[in-house]
C-alpha cells in the first residue's frame, strides 16, 4: 500500500457541504487490492484485539458490531482504513464520524475520506491508519497506546484553547462564520467590514488601558479601595524597612507577592512572623523589585465572571489536591484520582489530569512531605498553589447563590477597571453574604479570564458564558457577514465576476473580488496571479474594508481544499464545458458538474442560484439545487425559459436586441445590447451571455434597473479593465484581437464572434495547452481550422508535461479535420508570432491572437499602435 497524497479540506467540498473539515487521502492499495479482509487469515481477530472499540461502528449493517461483520465477510482495505482513522481519533478524544471511501478511475487507487476535528491530528490519523492496517495484515505488533497519546499531544499543540473554542462554537451555532488568524488563538468572527476579533477572552473592543490597570495589582486595589470595594489592606514594599512599616500597620497574618506575578509564582501565603516575611520578601523579589504585602484573608477562592458589565457566572475554585486515607502515599493517591473518568489529557475532558511538577514538589517540601509520604485519613494535601483547571484544579458553580449586593459590586468593578470581559478573584468564606459582612475581599481582577471553570464545572450547573460574549459582539440586528456572490463555470467566470463587481462598485459598495488575474479591492489589484481558490476568497473576506465580495471560484481550489466560504448569497454557474478533463480524477462532464455543484450547494436556501438555460449540464443539475433558481438564456424560445415564464419565475433573456429581466411574462428591459460595449456591438454572443448572468445576479441582489444599465454602459472592454477578454486594437490597415480562449468552448465563442466580423483575411495565432486531453487540443485545432484563413501555431510558456512537437501534432491533426485546407506555420514564441502576423497584415486583415501571456501581447500591440501614431503625427 502507498499513500499517494493527503489533502486537508477546510471548506464545503465535493464530498460534503455541511462537513467542511475532511481529510482526503489518495491511497494505492497495490498488491492488497487483491486481498479483501476475509482472505487474510486472522485479520478480523487482530483488528478486534487492537481496537476493540470499533465494535461501536455499525457501518452499512446498521447494528452494533456491523463493521466487524463486514470485515468478516470481506471488505476492501481502504474501507477498513477509513474506519480505523475515525476510531483512533475518537479514542483520542476527537469524536467525529463521517467517512467515505471510493475507488478512483485508476483501479486499486482509492480516495479515503474522513472527518477531523483538528487538522494536524487528522493527517496523523491518516498516516497511522495505513500503518496500522499494514501491521494487521502482516501480523506485526503495533503500539496503539503510543499512537493515541501522539494524537492527543498533536491536538493539544494545535487546537484552540477551551475559552476561544467555546466562543467559536457559539458563533457557529448562530451561523456566524469564523477564520483563525495565524497559528494562535486569534480569531475573526464574521466577514469584511462586519468582522469582530477576539483572542482567548480578549475582544477587539477590550480596552488596552483597562488591561493595563488589571495587570497592575496595586493600582487595581487602590482604584477599588477608593470606590469602597473591599480589598486586602497593605502596600508596596521594596526593602526590610518598608516591610516592617506595613506589617506594623496591618498586622499578621500576611501575604507577600510580586507586583506583576501570575500563577502564584513567588508568593508566600499566610505568613505569621517577621523572619518568614523577610524570606518571603526576598523570594518575591526574584520576580519583581516591588512586592505587595497585604492582609491574609481567610476563606475560599471564588471567581466572578462579568461580561459586558453583567455578571454571568460565579465559581468556587479548588486547587488540585488529594485527600488522605491513611493507607496510600501521595503518588498513589494522585494515580487513583487520575483514574477519575472526568479527568483527561489537556482540555479534552471536564478536568485535567494531575501531574507532579516543581510547584507540587515545593508545596510538599513546605509540609516536609515527599511523594512517598502517607497523609492521614481525611487530610487534604494541596498539590498546586493556584486553582487553575489546567493544572488539575476543580471548580464548583455558585452563580445562583451570589448575594445581589455582590452582583452589584462585581458589575461596578468591571466598569471601574473598564473591562468588557472581566474575571474577578475573590477570597471569602462565601458569596451568599455581602463581602463587607463576610470579611472577604477582592484579590485581583483578570483580563482574559478562562471560561472552562464555568463551561464545565466539576460540580453544579454548566454555564454557557460564550453566549454573552457573542451577544456583545453581535447584538440583535448587527450583521456578521457581507453579501457574497460566487461565480463558477468553465468559461466566462472572470468576465462575469468583473462585470458584477463593476455594478456593485457603482452602487456605492466597497467591493472585494477575486479572479484568475488577481485579487482586487475596488480598482486596486492587490495580488497578481490565479487567485480563484479558498485562500484568495479568505483574503477578501478578511479585509476589514470590504463591504461586498464577488468571488471567482474555480475548479482547482475546490478540489484542493474546498471553498473558502461556508455559504454565499448568490451562486452563478456560467456553463459546464470540456476543459481540464482527465485531471484530478475528473474524467467527464458529469464529474465536472459535481465539482461546480459545490458552489451551487453552498448557496443559502433563501439565496439564488443563477443558471444558464442554454447549457445542457447546468440544466441537468437543476433538480438537485436547494436554493431558489433564476435562469438566463440567449434564446427566449429555450424550453426551460418558457417553462419558467409560465411558472411566473424570474429570468434574464436576450430578446429583440435587449437585455431583459422577465418575471413570468412581464418584461423589464434593462438596456439594448448594442449599448453595452463589452458585447462588441452585440456581435459577441458569449459576452452577451456573461452580461445576462451578471445583470440577473445584480437584479436579484436588489440593485435598480437604471443602476445596472448605467454600469453595463460604462464597462469598457479595455485592456485595463478586462485584459485578454476580447480586446480589439485598431490599426490603419488592420485589427488585432487579443483573447484568452483556451478550450473548445472558448474557441467556439470566438468562432461565433468572427462570423460577424468583416475582413479580407483572418489570421489566427493559436496553441494547445499541455495538460488538456488529446481530443480537446485536437478540437481546438479543428475550430481554428474552420474560423481562420491562415494560422500561426505558437507554444505555451509552460508545456505542462508534453513536448512542443506532440502538442503541435495534435493541433495540426485537428486543423486538418476542419475540411478546408488552411495553410499554417509554426513560430514558437508568442511575441515573435504576433510580430510576424502584424508584418504580414494587409488592408482589411483581422488578426486573432489567442494569447498565453496576455499582458506581454497587449504591451507589444500597444507599442506598435503608438509607433503608427508617431509616424502619422
Ligand atoms: P493567578 O495568576 O493564578 O491568578 P496570581 O499570581 O495572580 O495567580 P493571586 O491571584 O494574587 O496571584 O493569588 C494567587 C492565590 O493566592 C489566590 O488565588 C489565593 O488563593 C492566594 N492569595 C493571594 N492573596 C491572598 C490574600 N491576601 N489572602 C489570602 N489568600 C491570598
Ligand atoms: P479561466 O478558467 O481561465 O479563469 P474564465 O472562466 O474566468 O476562464 P474568462 O476569463 O471570463 O473565463 O474568459 C476566458 C475566455 O473564455 C474568453 O476570452 C472567451 O474566449 C471565452 N469566454 C468567455 N465567456 C464565455 C462564455 N460565456 N461562453 C463561452 N466562452 C466564453
Ligand atoms: Mg490570580
Ligand atoms: Mg478566470
TrEMBL record:
Pfam families: Cyanophycin_syn, Mur_ligase_C, Mur_ligase_M, RimK. Keywords: ATP-binding, Ligase, Nucleotide-binding. SUPFAM superfamilies: Glutathione synthetase ATP-binding domain-like, MurD-like peptide ligases, catalytic domain, MurD-like peptide ligases, peptide-binding domain. InterPro entries: ATP-grasp, ATP-grasp_RimK-type, ATP_grasp_subdomain_1, Cya_phycin_syn, Cyanophycin_syn_N, Folylpolyglutamate_synth_CS, Mur-like_cat_sf, Mur_ligase_C. It comes from the Bacteria. The keyword Ligase applies. GO terms for molecular function: ATP binding; cyanophycin synthetase activity (L-arginine-adding); cyanophycin synthetase activity (L-aspartate-adding); metal ion binding; tetrahydrofolylpolyglutamate synthase activity. Signal peptide: none annotated. Its EC number is 6.3.2.29, 6.3.2.30. It catalyses: [L-4-(L-arginin-2-N-yl)aspartate](n)-L-aspartate + L-arginine + ATP = [L-4-(L-arginin-2-N-yl)aspartate](n+1) + ADP + phosphate + H(+); [L-4-(L-arginin-2-N-yl)aspartate](n) + L-aspartate + ATP = [L-4-(L-arginin-2-N-yl)aspartate](n)-L-aspartate + ADP + phosphate + H(+). Gene3D superfamilies: ATP-grasp fold, A domain, ATP-grasp fold, B domain, Mur ligase, C-terminal domain, Mur-like, catalytic domain. Residues 221-474 form the ATP-grasp domain. Homodimer. In the C-terminal section; belongs to the MurCDEF family. Catalyzes the ATP-dependent polymerization of arginine and aspartate to multi-L-arginyl-poly-L-aspartic acid (cyanophycin; a water-insoluble reserve polymer). This is Cyanophycin synthetase. It comes from Kaistella treverensis. The lineage of its organism: Bacteria, Pseudomonadati, Bacteroidota, Flavobacteriia, Flavobacteriales.
Amino acid at each position: 500500500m502507498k499513500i499517494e497524497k493527503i489533502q486537508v479540506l477546510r471548506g464545503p467540498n465535493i464530498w460534503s457541504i455541511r462537513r467542511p473539515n475532511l481529510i482526503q487521502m489518495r491511497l494505492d492499495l497495490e498488491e492488497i487490492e487483491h486481498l479483501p479482509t476475509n482472505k487474510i487469515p486472522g485479520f478480523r481477530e487482530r483488528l478486534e484485539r487492537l481496537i476493540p472499540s470499533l465494535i461501536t461502528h455499525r457501518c452499512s449493517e446498521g447494528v452494533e458490531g456491523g463493521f466487524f461483520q463486514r470485515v468478516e465477510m470481506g471488505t476492501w482495505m481502504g474501507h477498513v482504513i477509513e474506519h480505523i482513522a475515525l476510531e483512533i481519533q475518537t479514542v483520542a478524544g476527537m469524536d467525529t464520524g463521517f467517512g467515505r471511501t471510493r475507488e478512483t478511475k485508476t483501479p486499486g487507487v482509492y480516495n479515503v475520506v474522513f472527518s477531523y476535528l483538528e487538522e494536524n491530528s487528522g493527517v496523523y490519523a491518516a498516516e497511522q491508519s495505513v500503518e496500522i492496517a499494514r501491521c494487521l495484515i502482516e501480523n506485526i505488533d503495533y503500539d496503539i497506546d503510543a499512537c493515541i497519546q501522539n494524537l492527543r499531544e498533536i491536538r493539544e499543540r494545535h487546537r484552540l484553547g477551551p475559552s476561544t473554542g467555546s466562543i467559536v462554537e457559539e458563533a457557529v451555532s448562530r451561523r456566524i462564520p469564523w477564520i483563525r488568524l495565524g497559528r494562535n488563538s486569534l480569531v475573526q468572527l464574521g466577514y469584511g467590514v462586519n468582522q469582530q476579533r477576539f483572542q482567548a477572552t480578549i475582544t477587539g473592543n477590550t480596552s488596552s488601558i483597562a488591561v493595563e490597570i488589571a495587570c497592575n495589582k496595586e493600582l487595581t486595589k487602590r482604584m477599588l479601595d477608593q470606590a469602597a470595594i473591599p480589598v486586602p489592606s497593605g502596600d508596596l514594599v521594596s526593602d526590610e524597612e518598608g516591610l516592617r512599616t506595613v506589617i506594623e500597620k496591618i498586622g499578621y497574618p500576611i501575604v507577600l507577592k510580586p507586583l506583576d506575578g501570575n500563577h502564584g509564582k513567588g508568593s508566600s501565603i499566610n505568613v505569621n512572623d517577621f523572619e518568614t516575611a523577610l524570606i518571603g520578601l526576598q523570594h518575591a523579589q526574584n520576580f519583581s523589585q516591588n512586592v505587595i504585602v497585604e492582609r491574609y484573608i481567610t476563606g475560599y477562592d471564588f471567581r466572578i465572571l462579568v461580561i459586558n458589565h453583567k455578571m454571568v457566572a460565579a465559581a468556587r475554585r479548588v486547587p488540585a489536591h488529594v485527600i488522605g486515607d491513611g493507607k496510600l502515599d501521595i503518588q498513589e493517591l494522585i494515580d487513583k484520582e487520575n483514574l477519575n473518568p472526568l479527568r483527561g489529557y489537556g482540555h479534552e475532558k471536564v478536568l485535567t489530569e494531575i501531574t507532579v511538577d516543581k510547584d507540587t514538589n515545593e508545596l510538599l517540601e513546605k509540609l516536609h512531605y515527599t511523594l512517598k509520604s502517607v497523609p492521614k485519613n481525611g487530610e487534604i494535601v494541596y498539590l498546586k498553589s493556584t486553582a487553575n483547571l489546567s493544572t488539575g484544579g476543580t471548580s464548583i458553580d455558585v452563580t445562583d447563590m451570589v448575594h445581589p449586593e455582590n452582583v452589584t459590586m462585581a458589575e461596578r468593578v468591571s466598569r471601574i477597571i473598564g473591562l468588557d470581559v472581566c474575571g474577578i478573584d475573590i477570597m471569602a468564606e462565601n458569596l451568599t453574604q455581602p463581602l463587607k459582612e463576610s470579611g472577604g475581599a477582592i484579590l485581583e481582577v483578570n483580563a482574559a479570564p478562562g471560561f472552562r471553570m464555568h463551561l464545565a464545572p466539576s460540580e453544579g450547573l454548566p454555564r454557557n458564558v460564550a453566549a454573552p460574549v457573542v451577544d456583545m459582539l453581535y447584538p440583535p440586528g448587527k450583521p456578521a457577514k457581507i453579501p457574497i456572490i460566487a461565480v463558477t463555470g468553465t468559461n466566462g467566470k472572470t468576465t462575469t465576476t468583473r462585470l458584477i463587481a463593476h455594478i456593485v462598485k457603482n452602487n456605492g459598495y466597497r467591493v472585494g473580488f477575486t479572479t484568475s488575474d488577481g485579487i482586487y479591492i475596488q480598482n486596486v489589484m492587490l495580488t497578481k496571479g490565479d487567485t480563484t481558490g479558498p485562500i484568495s476568497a479568505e483574503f477578501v473576506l478578511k479585509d476589514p474594508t470590504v463591504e461586498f465580495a464577488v468571488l471567482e471560484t474555480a475548479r482547482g481550489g475546490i478540489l484542493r481544499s474546498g471553498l473558502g466560504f461556508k455559504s454565499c448569497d448568490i451562486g452563478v454557474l456560467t456553463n459546464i464545458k470540456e476543459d481540464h478533463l482527465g485531471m484530478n480524477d475528473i474524467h467527464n462532464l458529469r464529474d465536472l458538474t459535481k465539482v461546480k455543484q459545490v458552489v451551487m450547494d453552498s448557496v443559502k436556501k433563501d439565496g439564488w442560484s443563477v443558471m444558464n438555460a442554454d447549457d445542457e449540464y447546468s440544466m441537468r443539475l437543476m433538480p438537485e439545487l436547494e436554493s431558489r433558481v433564476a435562469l438566463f438564456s440567449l434564446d427566449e424560445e429555450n424550453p426551460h425559459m418558457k417553462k419558467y415564464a409560465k411558472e411566473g419565475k424570474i429570468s434574464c433573456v436576450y430578446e429583440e436586441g435587449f437585455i431583459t429581466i422577465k418575471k413570468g411574462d412581464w418584461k423589464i428591459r434593462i438596456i439594448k445590447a448594442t449599448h453595452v460595449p463589452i458585447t462588441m456591438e452585440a456581435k459577441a454572443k458569449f459576452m452577451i451571455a456573461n452580461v445576462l448572468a451578471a445583470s440577473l445576479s445584480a437584479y436579484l441582489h436588489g440593485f435598480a434597473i437604471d443602476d445596472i444599465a448605467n454600469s453595463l454602459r460604462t464597462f469598457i472592454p479595455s485592456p485595463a479593465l478586462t485584459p485578454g477578454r476580447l480586446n480589439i486594437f485598431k490599426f490603419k490597415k488592420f485589427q488585432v484581437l487579443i483573447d484568452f480562449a483556451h478550450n473548445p468552448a472558448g474557441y467556439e465563442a470566438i468562432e461565433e464572434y468572427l462570423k460577424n466580423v468583416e475582413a479580407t483575411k483572418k489570421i489566427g495565432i493559436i496553441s494547445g495547452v499541455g495538460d488538456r486531453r488529446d481530443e480537446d487540443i485536437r478540437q481546438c485545432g479543428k475550430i481554428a481550422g474552420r474560423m481562420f484563413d491562415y494560422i500561426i501555431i505558437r507554444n505555451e510558456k509552460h508545456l505542462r508535461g508534453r513536448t512542443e512537437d506532440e502538442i503541435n501534432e495534435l493541433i495540426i491533426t485537428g486543423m486538418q479535420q476542419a475540411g478546408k485546407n488552411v495553410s499554417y506555420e509554426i513560430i514558437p514564441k508568442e511575441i515573435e508570432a504576433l510580430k510576424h502576423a502584424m508584418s504580414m497584415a494587409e488592408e482589411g486583415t483581422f488578426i486573432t491572437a489567442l494569447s498565453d501571456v496576455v499582458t506581454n501581447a497587449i504591451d507589444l500591440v500597444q507599442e506598435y499602435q503608438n509607433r503608427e501614431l508617431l509616424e502619422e503625427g
